[in-house]
Amino acid sequence: MRIGVLTSGGDAPGMNATIRAVVRAALANKDQIFGIYDGYKGLVEGKIQEFTRKDVSEILNKGGTILGTARLPEFEYESVRKLAIKQLQKNDIEALICIGGDGTYTGALRLHEMGIKTIGIPCTIDNDIASSEYTIGFSTALNTACDAIDRLRDTSSSHQRCSIIEVMGRECGDLALYSGICCGAEYIITNETGLDKDRLLKDLKDNRLAGRRHAIVVISENLADVYQLAKEVEDYSGYECRATILGYVQRGGAPTPEDRLLAARLGKYSIDLLHEGITGVAVGVVKNELQYTPIEEALAMNNSSNEELHKLVQKIS
Length: 317
Ligand code: F6P
Prior knowledge:
Elements: E1 2-7, H1 15-28, E2 32-36, H2 39-45, E3 48-51, H3 78-90, E4 95-100, H4 102-113, E5 117-122, H5 138-159, E6 161-167, H6 174-182, E7 187-189, H7 197-209, E8 215-220, H8 226-237, E9 240-245, H9 257-275, E10 281-286, E11 289-294, H10 295-300, H11 307-316
Parallel strand pairs: 1-2, 1-4, 4-5, 5-10, 6-8, 6-9, 7-8
Antiparallel strand pairs: 2-3, 10-11
Residues 10, 71, 101, 124-126, 168-170, 221, 251 line the site of 6-O-phosphono-beta-D-fructofuranose.
């Protein structure tokens, strides 16, 4: 087969490991494999190059994506997708492996509806693709967030402060939930919990009066202006308070072994599925088993974070 591979949307650690796995599995299968640069945007512009083993050597442990990535909102227009399909036809590429998150999946689904064989591989720090228990990149971002929160705990405790830490996750609370549990945060605020400001302020004041030296609050992005919230905590609770936005640092770095392993498994699995004639699907792991789901279903699945973990937080924080 002649197969294209692209990365799209926000980059994530493990994208390179995934590209490598796809390329190596395809070549082992005697397929021809083409790297498409800068996501769907590069596809439309015809930035396509045939890859050999050598093109993906020394990238397994590297953050970012050697293919580059982009967001292309215009891909929702059929006329733009037709340009992409023209490029695929020009290069005789019959199938496309799309590595990324939900935006990437939507693009892959639309192309599939227009007759292109596509497979989606979940690769985003947000862990917001419900058809897979884990997305490639989540483990690394979680490690990065935990490392940062542990450091913030040191200084918060020394200064008897409250620390509000904003982590990424767009509409999915997993990064906040998992890092909050792993770092013993007093409060974890996600889309699912919502922000009950009055209660937070009162609880922090009670904590302070009870003599606790510090408090850690982990909050998902887009739920509050954390600098403003820190001011309100300081005015009300008796704690000095500082806010830290971890931001894009969570997107970089060498992937963890978990992410590399997932990348290897899902990369090879995608090539296997193409050869079985199974396309228009998203690959993933469920209970540590490889599994595929029609992309349309994968996009419609509820991606709110783990209920059992939310209950756990209520008992141990
Ligand atoms: O999807 C990954 C992610 O990092 C989200 O957590 C975040 O909301 C978004 O991308 C930021 O997007 P951009 O790179 O376009 O600023």
